Amino acid sequence: MNIQALHFVLDIDGNGSVAGWEVIEALKWAFSLPGRLMVEGLGNIPFVADTFHIQASAATGYASFHSLLATVLTLLFWVGCLVLITRIGADRKTADAAAPDTATTPGAPGMPHYRGPKARKT
User: Which residue of 34, 38, 65, 114 pairs with 107 in a disulfide if CB–CB is 3.0 to 4.6 A?
Assistant: First the structure.
């Protein structure tokens, strides 16, 4: 299976060196890759391709890679990633819920399960 969205050449002008603008183009390509992959995948489903007018095949060309649909899918992907990253560890107890726990357990404030250093064995 040929996935056209994955085709990329870093040295675009072919002069043997990588210029700053080529690095910026590579970053743009990497940022837009999730949406382009989703559009190419949806373009292989006939009724979805007809509904959204997706042209992402060798027969029709790959003009849909730079469409509004690909941009929206890319933005949704990256916003979803940011939401997931910021939600990691969000289920921590609040200070009010942790207060009864710390009152019954000896230890340092903010560390309810810490009981200090272990005594040396003699």
Answer: 114
Greater pLDDT, 5 or 53: 53
- Is residue 58 a contact partner of residue 2, using CB atoms and an 8 Å limit? yes
Number of C-alpha atoms within 13 angstroms, CB side, residue 104? 4
pLDDT tens-place string over residues 13-45: 778 788 888 889 889 888 988 988 888 888 888
Inside any domain, residue 109:
no
For the whole model, what pTM was predicted? Answer: 0.60
Helix ranges, the chain (H): 20-42, 46-52, 68-87, 95-104
Find the domain containing 95 and state its range.
Answer: 4-104
Tell me whether residue 114 is in a domain.
no
| Separation between Cα atoms, residue 112 and residue 99, nearest integer Å | 9
State whether residue 26 is helix, strand or coil.
Answer: helix
Q: Is residue 69 part of a domain?
A: yes
